[in-house]
Amino acid sequence: MIRIGFLLNFPKEYKGGINYFKNLFYALSKVEKREFQIFLFLPDDIDKEYIEMFSPYVTIVITSLLKRGNPFWFADKVSGKLLNYMPFTIRLLKQYKIDIVSHSNFYSRFSSFKIINWIPDFQWVHYPDLWSKRGISNLRLMTRKVLQYSDAIVVSSQDAKKDLLTFDDADKSNIQVLQFVSQPNHNKEGNLEELRRHVEKEYNFSGSFFFLPNQFWRHKNHLIAFKAIKEMKKKGLNPLLITTGLMHDFRNRNEHIDSLMKYVKDEQLQDNIRFLGLIPYRHVLFLMENCLAVINPSLFEGWSSTVEEAKSIGKLTVLSDIPVHREQNPSGAIYFNPFDEHDLANALANIWQNKADLPVVDAGKVNEDLENRTRLFAERYTDIVNGVKS
Q: Which of 325, 302, 306 is nearest to 154 (CA)?
């Protein structure tokens, strides 16, 4: 039995990483006669909800080593950076007889483990102006170390693989594309009409709306969507756009978010654009299931979880025309120039004015497609594990 260890060694506010782990573990739980056991190492200050989220699928190990600021955590950070060696992490992994360390930004020049690392994207390469010089330096250093010490590098798209191959020391044979699949966890329990009333009352809206569920980082390009809503109002329409997501960007002290909120106020769009921030996932899913369309205006993605979740429930998507969105290829997607608010406004106006004619979702077909994609996701990861183990 192969023992695979994952370290949740990133801030829990990084919802993309949390959701990636959850979706991968769920997919792997569906593998019949699997020849591996998964261990997830969590910091001892983790919220109970995360333990409940992961425990149905993996063996949970709670450790103080992963608590940020812990002296041993700090020592491993320094040792890893200077000596390419993390002694306390290695001791922990050996204690649990781990064979493969996966998706954990782990590297070591003195280790008997096989190592699979995941690089989410190369946003810092394409948009360096969004990062500090120190931030870019740290990311470049991490990428170099991961390339040097990993037995396999996982990226989420062919587009990301193309970026990785621009690094001189990238070994093409070690790069594996693993396109993750999001599980929607449909709102099947309880009274859905009661849930509707609760959500509409809680967030003070009713009727038709568009949904934009992205973190408020500048490359997510919220402003083009807000400008499109303004253009729709000029045409005499009165649309509603609901946004959710972490309203904090560590890279610019929230200046970008403040500028977005100022734009909405200055253009008198408060009744047309709502900022809900971080809300319960059940509410996010309700909004996604009940909106007219999910919008992702992002300038850059590694593999969009927003798009994947919309695919998994069969929801219409309106997407920036970037390579990775084309690669994700959700059925019926509408693409627009991410620098042209008129292009987006025209697409949204057509949906808004013809909402009664939107296609009805074939739930059976959507569920069958989701099951097939989930199976392929699990099989692909299993192949990667077997490849490094052989």
A: 302
